[in-house]
Design brief:
The chain has about 500 residues and is an all-alpha fold. It folds into two domains: about 180 residues, no CATH class; about 300 residues, no CATH class. About 70% of the residues lie in helices and about 0% in strands. It has 19 helices and no strands. α2 crosses α6, α14 packs antiparallel against α15 and α15 crosses α16. The longest helix has about 40 residues. It is globular and about 65 Å long. The chain starts with 5 loop residues before the first helix and ends in a 17-residue tail after the last helix.
Length: about 500
């Protein structure tokens, strides 16, 4: 069930209405049932996997809390991670491993192995697996007490707003909220609905419209020169941000309507002034997960410069693999790892140069120079992320650097976007830029809107709703388009 489907427009109000009407002591059971119904709407068989992951991590918490020795606790953590990652491997990485194994077998003149079964990637498996595993570590570290009620814990793992594509919540935040009393609050509901509406604007008006142009170019790279591929890549940067941020915003807003507080997942990433800053703003729930549960356990920056950079590279390689079982995702992660290592190595030199030529680090022009530089670097890495494979990525880069050419405005319709849609996209992106610019200075634009006088505030609400209804891309027969991060 997609957030941008008619089914969800019936499902969510129904779930929320019943949630506020039923007694407090059974609210969590209602949300648990709704969450499993939401997840099973894709494929009922998926429920077995999420239930298995839930049971494993729930039991690991019980075992850890009752273990007498640290060694026993470590074994419980090891078992939880091994079983969950084994499930993730089978359903997400089996064919990737098999393809690479067959490549080696072919090199050794051995016959390739072909499995006699098909494996379908369950939607959201990477997200809920990481969320469940974080609970095991949190209990081991003593950050949270083990949950004794299985159904409350199951709700933490499967909470429907953020189940399929995050944010990847921590037990310290979300699990504790299951026991809170949530009542209808007009101001909170109004704020949550506004956040959701902004999310729908990003998805339907910007992301899905930009997708037409991006797909047209990347599905037929040999028909376009370098400048067109560069434009499509920049549009993909906008598309993937608006697509993923929209899901997070709709999830955060839906949860807020019911009284739950989810963590922020994006903070204007294309306003970053360095690659490190970009990752403090992009997919925050995942980047902080890797920081807390992989980078720091590996030693972080506590074991010398070389080890720090090695740990960084490991994190980004794993991050790339987390995003997809393909080498072009791994290369994408490696590029970002190299970016950060280069930033770290050259930091002293760059600082000395800036001081020598007396550049004010806070100068408007210099700040935007850094932002544009980061955006270009990020876009280059996006080529590998968007391309279906390494061959396509190499072709895109080759054309950009050897056949850049010029824009042929007579062939702009070849992008698959007509003039009205191109103008609509440009205007919507300008609105996004203006909102981001305001939020970058004032931090919380939602609060700013809420403080407006009644007529102005409702003018903003209605204008945003009008934009979504009139300029949204709904597909043939009002078919809802899938969110990009569902494939991960």
């Amino acid at each position: 069930m997609l957030f941008n489907s008619f089914n969800f427009l019936i499902f969510f109000p129904t779930v929320t209405l019943v949630y506020f009407l039923i007694p407090q002591k059974i609210k969590y059971l209602w949300l648990l049932a709704a969450s499993y119904f939401f997840y099973m709407s894709w494929n009922p068989k998926y429920a077995v996997l999420i239930l298995t992951s839930t049971a494993i991590t729930f039991l690991s918490g019980i075992v850890i809390s009752g273990a007498k020795t640290k060694k026993a606790k470590k074994w419980a953590v090891f078992a939880s991670f091994s079983l969950n990652l084994a499930i993730l491997f089978v359903f997400k990485y089996f064919y990737f491993a098999l393809d690479n194994l067959n490549t080696v077998r072919t090199f050794l003149n051995l016959s390739a192995y072909m499995p006699k079964f098909d494996i379908i990637l369950p939607v959201g498996i990477s997200f809920y697996t990481f969320q469940a595993l974080s609970y095991t570590v949190d209990v081991y570290r003593g950050d949270v007490a083990p949950e004794k009620n299985f159904f409350k814990y199951a709700l933490f793992v499967s909470f429907f707003p953020q189940l399929v594509a995050g944010p990847i919540e921590r037990s310290k935040n979300l699990l504790s909220q299951v026991n809170e009393e949530h009542y209808f609050d007009y101001l909170r509901v109004r704020r949550g609905l506004l956040v959701m509406l902004w999310g729908y604007f990003l998805k339907l008006v910007i992301a899905d419209r930009a997708a037409i142009l991006v797909n047209t170019v990347y599905d037929n790279l040999t028909s376009f020169n370098g400048v067109h591929i560069a434009i499509a890549t920049a549009c993909f940067a906008v598309q993937i941000y608006c697509d993923f941020a929209s899901y997070s915003l709709i999830a955060i807003g839906a949860a807020e309507v019911m009284g739950f507080r989810l963590m922020q997942n994006f903070r204007r990433p294309y306003f970053a002034i360095s690659i490190a800053d970009f990752w403090r703003r992009w997919h925050i729930s995942l980047s902080t997960w890797f920081r807390d549960y992989l980078y720091i356990p590996l030693g972080g920056n506590r074991k010398g410069t070389v080890r720090k950079y090695l740990n960084l590279m490991i994190v980004f390689l794993v991050s790339g693999l987390w995003h997809g079982a393909s080498w072009h995702f791994v290369i994408w992660g490696a590029i970002h790892g190299l970016y950060q290592i280069f930033e770290g190595i050259t930091k002293g030199v760059r600082t000395s140069i800036i001081k020598a030529i007396k550049i004010n680090a806070d100068n408007f022009a210099y700040v935007w120079f850094k932002r544009i530089t980061v955006f270009v670097l990020v876009c280059f890495a996006w080529i590998f992320f968007r391309s279906p494979d390494m061959t396509a990525a190499n072709e895109a880069i080759r054309r950009i650097f050897t056949d850049f050419g010029s824009i042929d405005f007579a062939k702009m319709t070849d992008f698959g976007v007509d003039v009205p849609n191109a103008v609509s996209l440009a205007c919507a992106v300008l609105v996004l830029f203006a909102v981001s610019l305001f939020a970058n200075k004032n931090n919380d634009i939602i609060t700013g809107i809420e403080k407006m006088i009644f007529p102005v505030r409702w003018t903003v609400y209605l204008a945003l709703l009008f934009a979504v209804l009139v300029f949204g891309i709904y597909g043939p027969g009002f078919e809802a388009s899938q969110f990009i991060y569902f494939q991960f």
